[in-house]
Amino acid sequence: MVRPLCSVLSLGLFLGFLAGCHRSLSPSSPSTLLSSATPIWQHLRVRRTTYENLKGLAQLRVHSPQGNGTLDGVVVVLERFAGVRLEGIGPFGQALFLLVSDGYRFSLYLPQERRVLSGPTSAPQSLLGLQVAPKLLPYLLMGDVPLTTLPEAGQLRYVAQDDVYLWEGDDPEEPWHYRIWFDPYRLLPIRCELSGRAGETVLQVTYADFRHVGGLTLPYQITLTQPIAAREVQWTYSEVQINAGVTSTLFQLRLPPGVEQVEID
């Protein structure tokens, strides 16, 4: 079913499918506390090597000062941490949008407008007020940390009140300061915050409803919030397959003739 979401179809919305994290934790603290984040990064590296691709169906909910909307049919295909295909399907099977990315460039096709928007995945885009680099989508949509390269530095501490580990650090390749909360038992991210150099929070990500699928633990609910713009995008999986096999052609866009092409820097 498509509710008022159709009125706000735009690049910002469909590249803003970023994630975040909710906890389902034991009330007792771990028997042995970590003194560094090294075991967490090692665990995530193994998880990344185990994962090849994801195929699924999801619901998208958008909350903003301009209104709220829900799209029940979004087909998701992810390959490693590069390929992305997101396809919005209407209640009568009509195509509403198609977003593809090969890890270097993205294209968003809006068939009702006969227009395609394209650009590099590395540069943050203004997406309905959400600053999101499209290259982060394949990480966030499978419940990983929004870091293309896992860090070696940074500070880790255990927050007893919330029963979580909190890591803080920077990525020399990105302009953000990161705060990432981890489940101390599964060593998986449950919440993330990206802040500017002045300390302002530009993005909050929450992961919730963790389930075991195809040998991996995956959040079925991913929420992206930008406090400054008072906008929130919630992504909820209903069907997921892990490592089921995909073809590279899924991440290539073939357009019909007469489509307007717009390049975004």
Task: Give the domain tally.
Answer: 1
Q: Give the end-to-end Cα distance, rounded to a whole number of Å.
A: 34 Å
The number of helices is 3
Largest sheet: 14 strands, mixed
Strand order of the largest sheet: 9-10-11-12-13-14-15-1-2-3-4-5-6-16
Give the topology, please.
Elements: H1 11-14, H2 38-50, E1 53-64, E2 67-79, E3 83-89, E4 95-101, E5 105-110, E6 115-120, E7 125-127, E8 130-132, H3 137-140, E9 155-159, E10 164-170, E11 177-182, E12 189-195, E13 201-213, E14 216-226, E15 231-242, E16 260-263
Parallel strand pairs: 6-16
Antiparallel strand pairs: 1-2, 1-15, 2-3, 3-4, 4-5, 5-6, 7-8, 9-10, 10-11, 11-12, 12-13, 13-14, 14-15
How would you describe the overall organization of this protein?
The longest helix has 13 residues, at 38-50. The two termini are 34 Å apart. This protein has 265 residues and is mostly beta strands. Strand 9 and strand 10 form a beta hairpin. The chain has three helices and 16 strands. Helices cover 8% and strands 46% of the residues.
Short recap of the structure:
This protein is mainly beta and 265 residues long. 8% of the residues lie in helices and 46% in strands.
Pick out its properties.
mainly beta; two-stranded antiparallel ribbon; 46% strand; disordered N terminus
